[in-house]
Amino acid sequence: MDTHSEDALSLDALDLRLLAQLQLDASLTNQDLAQAVNASPATCLRRVRRLVQTGVIEKTVAILAPAQVGQALTAIVEVTLMTQDAESLARFERLMQWEAAIQQCYRVSTSPDFVLIITVANMDAYHDFVHRTLTAANQVRNVRTFFSINRSKFSAQLPLPKTTTNITRR
Q1: Positive or negative, the Cα torsion across 91, 54, 61, 20?
Q2: Radius of gyration, CA atoms only, the chain
Q3: What is the set of domains in the chain, with CATH numbers?
């Protein structure tokens, strides 16, 4: 039932139902989750543990309302580095991992080199972030920022296949 090779993991209909339900509400008890996906609690627990151990489920978190915790300004920031060699790109990515204001960091193709999604308290905090993080000392050549006026949609949910699927593990 839970067979898979070293390189591929098979996700059956129950796995997909579990993932869909967990994306909606990961705070459910195992009993409530099992009831929601029509499975026994023991099967549900075993399947969720496998999904965590294999890396399908990376992390379980609480999604906060930014303004409710004093982080009212969201910015989408395009960053171009002075050089695009592998070490410069990797160094910048490592630096971004430690910056709390950065919610997401993507290395992108063509131009710019990176797109960041950041959340800060206000414009002063944004300026502090830029001066501390996006400076020539960090090999940044150009910064272009878009400030969010309204968040129309925010979701951490990924679209899931409708039927059983094999996924390649990294």
Answers
A1: positive
A2: 20
A3: 8-61 (1.10.10.10), 66-147 (3.30.70.920)
